[in-house]
Amino acid sequence: GAGVSQTPSNKVTEKGKYVELRCDPISGHTALYWYRQSLGQGPEFLIYFQGTGAADDSGLPNDRFFAVRPEGSVSTLKIQRTERGDSAVYLCASSSRQGILPGELFFGEGSRLTVL
Amino acid sequence: AQRVTQPEKLLSVFKGAPVELKCNYSYSGSPELFWYVQYSRQRLQLLLRHISRESIKGFTADLNKGETSFHLKKPFAQEEDSAMYYCALTFFSGGYNKLIFGAGTRLAVHP
């Protein structure tokens, strides 16, 4: 596709349930980032992938959060035993390390997660 | 620790008025700073970056290392400038460029 694609766009779940959020980056982009944006806040870094490996997962808030990118393209953010505080918009972004100045990320439209 | 501060949550101006969205950063190294914008119902996108010293949609931003600031300015605001604006800092950490954001400022331009 032309841009970063995220699904679902909206997800409502109950406390304690398991959730998966998917990100399809721009074709050829090797770097992939997940951010979380709570109401009234800026995007907060969660995890960064370079290729298939998680190069930096220091932003994941706790062990209920996990992300994978098994083939170096699509990534899935997984949240176990969801809590109301997990409610936020989860943003995915990608970039190419070649020819792109650092910091120029291309964002998806986000997945809005609501935990009841 | 690295930090980006945007002190204003909301900036409200009339069309044609000058605009300045404030951004201060905390970083001990040589910073690279950006402004991202999010228009209503659109995705977050890059507006401009300081190393390019460019003007986009009439906006400019100058890096002031002495004041650790990177304020976004436009001499005459337009209604279509209404959006959320995020200042962002990138720094090299753990072998890659990490990007962190401020909390954002909502710019509302009234007719």
Describe the structure concisely for a colleague.
The complex is a heterodimer of chains A (116) and B (111). Chain A is mainly beta.
Care to describe what's here?
- The complex is a heterodimer of chains A (116) and B (111).
- Chain A is mainly β and 116 residues long.
- Helices cover 0% and strands 47% of the residues of chain A.
- In chain A, the strands form 2 sheets. In chain A, strands 2, 4, 5, 6, 9, 10 and 11 form a 7-stranded mixed β-sheet that branches.
- In chain A, a hairpin with a 6-residue loop joins strand 7 (65-68) and strand 8 (75-79).
- Chain A is globular and about 40 Å long.
- Chain B has no helices and 11 strands.
- In chain B, strands 2, 5, 6, 9, 10 and 11 form a 6-stranded mixed β-sheet that branches.
- Chain B is globular.
- The mean pLDDT of chain B is 92.
SS-derived structural category of chain B: mainly beta
Helix content of chain A: under 10%
| Assembly annotation | heterodimer
Share of β-strand residues of chain B: over 45%
Q: For the record, give the distance between the C-alpha atoms at the N and C termini of chain B, rounded to a whole number.
A: 41 Å
Would you identify the regions of chain B where 5 or more consecutive residues have pLDDT less than 50? none
Relevant terms:
heterodimer; A: 116 residues; mainly beta; 7-stranded mixed beta sheet; 4-stranded antiparallel beta sheet; 11 strands; globular; B: 111 residues; 6-stranded mixed beta sheet; 3-stranded antiparallel beta sheet
Q: Topology of this structure?
A:
The complex is a heterodimer of chains A (about 120) and B (about 110).
Chain A: E1 5-7, E2 10-13, E3 19-24, E4 31-37, E5 44-50, E6 53-56, E7 65-68, E8 75-79, E9 88-95, E10 106-107, E11 111-115
Parallel strand pairs in A: 2-11
Antiparallel strand pairs in A: 1-3, 3-8, 4-5, 4-9, 5-6, 7-8, 9-10, 9-11
Chain B: E1 3-5, E2 10-14, E3 19-21, E4 24-26, E5 32-38, E6 45-49, E7 60-61, E8 72-74, E9 83-93, E10 96-101, E11 105-110
